[in-house]
Design a protein that fits this description.
- The protein has 130 residues and is of the alpha/beta class.
- The protein has one domain (11-121): Rossmann fold, CATH 3.40.50.280.
- Helices cover 45% and strands 12% of the residues.
- The protein has 5 helices and 3 strands, in the order H-H-E-H-E-H-E-H.
- The chain has a 3-stranded parallel β-sheet, with no helix packed on it.
- Helix 1 (11-22) crosses helix 5 (111-121) and helix 2 crosses helix 3 (60-73).
Length: 130
């Protein structure tokens, strides 16, 4: 889980990290104001299955392509799912998904919805505890 750029709003990502840990997932939170390079290096080093990025700054059209390019350079792009959450205009979602983003979650999405998406699309319907 990562917060790139100058975005300093982290309550939502911390709530989601806690819900994921409570559900039995191993969660790594990189903290605030990380560069795309720091995010990708952590994701590759930790061999993550899902890279979750929270964006509330409006910089998703700049930062997400950088993350994707760095993942491709490190030959890690095909090995993980990329999900986004935050203030992302619906008009940008199709472009982000065309780039390879697996899912975009908007403000107000329940933690259960995010966990269900991961269970269905990443671990094939099993819960983390199984």
């Amino acid at each position: 889980m990562a917060k790139p750029g100058l975005d300093g709003h982290d309550r939502g990502i911390k709530v989601l990290c806690r819900a994921m840990r409570d559900a039995g997932y191993e969660v790594i939170y990189t903290g605030l104001r990380r560069t795309p390079e720091e995010i990708v290096n952590a994701a590759v080093q930790e061999d993550v299955d899902v890279l979750g990025i929270s964006l509330l700054s409006g910089a998703h059209n700049v930062l997400v392509p950088q993350v994707i390019e760095l993942l491709r350079e490190k030959e890690a792009w095909d090995e993980m799912h990329l999900i986004l959450g935050g203030i992302i205009p619906e008009s940008d979602v199709s472009r982000l998904k065309e780039m390879g983003v697996d899912e975009v979650f908007f403000p107000g999405t329940s933690t259960r919805s995010v966990l269900s998406w991961i269970e269905k699309n990443v671990i094939g319907g099993q819960t983390a505890a199984e």
